[in-house]
Amino acid sequence: MSAALTNAAPSVRPAFRPWRFIRRNPTLAAGLFILAIMVTVALLAPLIAGDPLRMQPAQRLRPPSAQYWLGTDSLGRDVFARLVYGARVSLLVGLSVATFSILIGLTIGLLAGFFRTADAIVMRIMDGLMAIPAILLAIAMVSLSRASLLVVIIAITIPEIPRVVRLVRSVVLSVREQPFVEAAIAGGAPTWKILLRHIMPSTFPPLIVQATYVCASAILIEASLSFLGAGTPPEIPTWGNMVSSSRLFLSRAPWTIFAPGLALALVVLAVNLVGDGLRDRLDPRLARRM
User: Fold this and answer.
1) Confidence bin at 136 (pLDDT 50/70/90)
2) Quick check: 41 and 87 in contact, CB under 8 A?
3) CA-to-CA dists, residue 128 to 155, 173, 287, angstroms
4) Which DSSP string corresponds to 62-74?
5) Which residues of 110-149 are buried (b: 16+ CB within 10 A; e: fewer)?
6) How much is the pLDDT for 17?
7) Cβ distance 160 to 213 under 8 Å?
8) What is the mean pLDDT of residues 175-191?
9) Which positions ≥6 away from 133 have C-beta within 8 Å?
10) Which of 68-72, 125-129, 164-168 tops mean pLDDT?
């Protein structure tokens, strides 16, 4: 009798412990560690770095030393100071683009997936936007307006929205046919309540992972735009601007281009590692396999 009761008892799913999961996932731990350093450095920029715009012609192209940890560039500006303040711009662009694209894409995707009449129109518009390369669309938008950090964020956000819309729409199409959604519809629940309470929570796991990839992509696109001269104004210290202004002095002063290039590679790698680690946790198939 006791054995039968034991076998019939429902299994209790163990509680999720974030620190335990991070310890068991070295890629996620490495990504979070690098990101924590980058965020800390960016927040403490006024305390650990000097003026990134101060030009000293007499100190131009100085190699790394005790006074200038990463040397100086062609205008005598401190490379370390510009690198630290450039982290602020890159992280701000990545987080802003990820936030705006997820919010807008989530709203459009919910409506397109739930209402069949709007689905065809909305998805044809999204397909048209996805047919244009993101970098070209961003360059076109920046060239039509005055260069600024806000314009760059908007120009990078628009090409990322269709990818989020397609992701949310696919989730909504599958969840809409579930019995609990059909029961809510049959019970006369308001549409907004069905979307927000019954359907939208199912989109959160894939959206969290997608947000990390959008963030990494936005940081790379911003650096590419700045390198091409179509991004933020030259007076704003960004990693793309640093690489662009130092490419002519690569053989003479390699430190001016090596530091921002390495920082850009590290932050994109860290964001992708976090995305892979979150995918391993939030994807049920991968979670069971692990």
Assistant:
1) confident
2) yes
3) 16, 21, 36
4) PPS-SSSTT-B-T
5) bbbbbeeeebeebbeebeebbeeebbebbbebbeeeebeb
6) 64
7) no
8) 81
9) none
10) 164-168
The b-or-e profile of 219-239 (16+ CB within 10 A means b, else e) is bbbbbbbbbeebbbeeebbbb
What angle, rounded to 10 degrees, do the helices at 239-246 and 255-282 form? 150
Reported pTM: 0.85
pLDDT above 70: residue 198: yes
Tokens of 145: 């307006």
Q: What is residue 105's predicted lDDT score, i.e. its pLDDT?
A: 94
135 three-state secondary structure: helix
CA gap 86, 153 in Å, rounded: 15
Residues 277 and 284: their CA atoms lie apart, in Å, by 13
CA 118/CA 192 separation, integer angstroms: 16
Q: Are 28 and 277 in contact (CB under 8 A)?
A: yes
| Nearest alpha carbon to residue 213 among 273, 131, 127 | 273
Structure tokens at 22: 């991070």
Q: How far is CA 13 from CA 256, 286, 287, 289, in A?
A: 53, 16, 13, 15
Task: Determine the 3-state secondary structure of 57 from DSSP.
Answer: helix
Angle, in degrees to the nearest 10, between helices 116-130 and 149-175: 140
Averaged pLDDT score across all residues of the chain: 84
Distance CA(37)–CA(137), nearest Å, equals 32
> Do residues 53 and 36 lie in contact, with contact meaning Cβ atoms separated by under 8 Å?
no
The C-alpha R_g of the chain, in whole angstroms, comes to 24
